[in-house]
């Protein structure tokens, strides 16, 4: 991908807002920003196409925990040749998962970090396109967890189909944004908080 040779995927997590699932485990779904969510890990290619997605972890789960328990890690541990994944500093630096340097001091280290971040940005763009295509992912889902997981996976598949078919990105104007916002009015939104 872009400025990094051998990079196959960019990796990150994003939060999808949910209502409180209730019960003894509910607080596991409250993320560091204070709202209930699922923490979704995804890896995409240079075309913004999702190549791996994990949609089962509560919002309080750290990104590295999701990765360490993922099939993606298992596949790369078993050997993917000399291919690499780019991740942010929330992930461990390992032979096939390249993260930014924590304290760059030289011009070369700064250039490395800039190139790594610029190249890794493809996953941020993929999340943005995905959530604009399916605004419910950004606004929140008031459904049972298994249904939330199904919707996340279904929208990821539809996103990939749109990429393959060169569908244009969805541009949300102010009028449409207001209509979307009215689907979950703020005054009735006790369990799904705005970011």
From TrEMBL:
Subcellular compartments: Nucleus
InterPro entries from the UniProt entry: HARBI1-like, HARBI1_dom
Domain DDE Tnp4: 11-160
One Pfam family cited in the UniProt record for this chain: DDE_Tnp_4
Isomerase found in the keyword field: no
One GO molecular-function entry: nuclease activity
Gene Ontology CC terms, in alphabetical order: nucleus
Keyword Hydrolase (UniProt): yes
Cofactor: a divalent metal cation
Alphabetical keyword list: Hydrolase, Metal-binding, Nuclease, Nucleus
Assigned protein family: Belongs to the HARBI1 family.
PANTHER family to which the protein is assigned, alphabetical: DDE TNP4 DOMAIN-CONTAINING PROTEIN-RELATED, PTHR22930
Name used for this protein in its record: DDE Tnp4 domain-containing protein
């Amino acid at each position: 991908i872009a400025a990094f040779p051998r990079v196959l995927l960019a990796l990150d997590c994003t939060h999808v807002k949910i209502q409180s699932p209730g019960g003894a485990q509910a607080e596991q779904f409250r993320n560091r920003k204070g709202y209930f969510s699922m923490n979704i890990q995804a890896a995409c290619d240079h075309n913004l196409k999702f190549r791996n997605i994990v949609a089962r972890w509560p919002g309080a789960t750290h990104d590295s925990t999701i990765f360490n328990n993922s099939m993606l890690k298992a596949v790369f541990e078993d050997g993917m040749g000399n291919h690499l994944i780019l991740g942010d500093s929330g992930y461990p630096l390992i032979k096939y998962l390249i993260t930014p340097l924590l304290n760059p001091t030289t011009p070369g280290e700064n250039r490395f970090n800039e190139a790594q971040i610029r190249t890794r940005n493809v996953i941020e763009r993929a999340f943005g396109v995905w959530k604009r295509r399916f605004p419910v992912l950004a606004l929140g889902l008031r459904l049972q967890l298994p249904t939330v997981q199904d919707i996340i996976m279904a929208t990821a598949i539809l996103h990939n189909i749109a990429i393959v078919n060169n569908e244009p990105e969805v541009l949300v104007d102010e009028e449409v944004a207001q209509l979307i916002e009215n689907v979950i009015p703020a005054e009735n939104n006790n369990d799904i908080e705005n970011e």
